[in-house]
Every structure is written in C-alpha cells, then in structure tokens.
Prior knowledge:
Blueprint: E1 2-9, E2 18-25, E3 30-35, H1 41-48, E4 56-61, E5 64-65, H2 74-79, E6 81-85, H3 96-105, H4 111-124, H5 140-152, E7 158-162, H6 170-185, E8 189-193, H7 197-203, E9 206-211, E10 214-219
Helix pairs in contact: 3-4, 3-5, 4-5, 5-6
Bound molecules: adenosine-5'-triphosphate.
Adenosine-5'-triphosphate (ATP) is lined by residues 11-12, 17, 35, 37-43.
Amino acid sequence: xxxxxxVSKSYAKGQPAVNNVSLHIEKGEFVFIVGNxxxxxxxxxxxxxxxxxxxxxxxxxxGQILNKMKRWRVPKYRRGVGVVFQDFRLLKDRNVYENVAFxxxxxxxxxxxxxKRVPEVLTLVGLAEKYKSFPKELSGGExxxxxxxxxxxxxxxxxxxxxxxxxxxxxNSMEIMKLLEEINNRGTTVLVVTHNREIVxxxxxxxxxxxxxxxVSDEKEGExxxx
Length: 227
Ligand SMILES: Nc1ncnc2c1ncn2[C@@H]1O[C@H](COP(=O)(O)OP(=O)(O)OP(=O)(O)O)[C@@H](O)[C@H]1O
C-alpha cells in the first residue's frame, strides 16, 4: 500500500529532515510513527500527501509512484488519503453537518449521496445528535471527531493523523484513538504520528520510531521508545 525506497528530504540547509528512509506498510495496517520533535514525522506525512517532493528516493502509494505523478492527478490522489491534524481545522462558520458535507461537495457528490453518507459517518463518530452544532459549541474531543468524520466521509484507502490527540485530555485522546482503530478495523490503512506514550504502549500496534530523520526502530506490537 505504501512503500518508501531510500527517501530523503532536505530543506534549504542543514541535515536532511528525512534521511534515507525505506519502509513498507501493508494495506489494512495500523501504524504509529513516534520520535522527538524535529525527527521528521510531519515531513514524512507531507511527502505522503505530495505536499513536498523528496530530494531523492521513491514513494509508492496504492501502486502509484508519487514522484512521477502528473500534476493534474494530484487532487484525485489526495482524495484517496484522509487527513486529521492536531488543530482540527474545521470551518468555524459551518455546523457539524456542513463541515463533513463540505468534503463531499468539493468533489461534486450528488446531494442524495451526501444526505445518506454524512449521517452515516456522524453516527460512526458518535455525533449524530450534534449535527446542527457549530465548532465553538463542541468540546475539543467532539471537534476532533468531526475532523475524523470529514477525513473518512469519502472512504479514503488511507487515513493520516498528525498528532490527532495533541490538544486533547487523556480521556478524549483515548477515545479518538479507539475511533481510529475502529476505522482501521473497517479496512482503512491508518498512520498516526503521536507523542502520546500511554496510548502507544496500550494499543500494541506497529511502532516506527524516528530520530533525526532516520528510522531507528520498527516493531510489531511495539512500544514508545525514548531516543
Ligand atoms: N519548511 C521547512 N523549512 C526548513 N526546515 C524545516 C521545514 N519544516 C521542517 N523543517 C526541519 O526539518 C526537521 C524535521 O521537521 P518535522 O516537522 O518533520 O519534525 P517532526 O518530527 O514532525 O517534529 P514535531 O514532533 O515537533 O512536529 C526539523 O529539523 C525542522 O526544523
């Protein structure tokens, strides 16, 4: 599903943010990416979204080599990848329903599809009853649920979450991770960048640890390592 082959990314100067990384993630896997601040995790996510180009190496996602992808194909590619961020990034002036529906409207899904699909995903994330609420009327955990609903409404093959619990308390953090696990159980490949040691250690998933741009460990049912 995702293969990185000797991928490096250097910004203007200094050592590469991602340094000769090779890894393979199978369809349906749940993977944590951990590592200190500045170890290259967000850069890796941006490379997978084709927001950045690698300085060298190749990235293959769903059989497509990202480096060679024609520019006009990129929007379609990104639609197959759901993304969740630490800061939720909801539209403040739209209610829960519209925040999720928006992701379908931009790809011109017909209204009858939207009317069926949005309540479905809101039920999955446990927010069916709050569909009329605006982001400011929701708790942080609820806002992140909306962001997750928006990320999955178009049924992406892959869900990338960059510090999805960074702004949440421990209870809400665990609930969001359980939700990501549920989405994974339904077939979506899930990659989660996190600093949350307790959650990583309790969930017993694959853990890829980065340090200074390099993958220093990659364990099945791994633990959070300080490196
Ligand atoms: N746009 C940029 N221009 C120059 N250097 C950058 C840029 N973005 C990131 N870097 C550098 O690349 C390295 C890796 O950054 P990255 O954001 O990928 O780390 P991270 O592991 O996601 O960190 P954090 O846990 O703090 O989010 C850091 O040294 C950072 O300063």
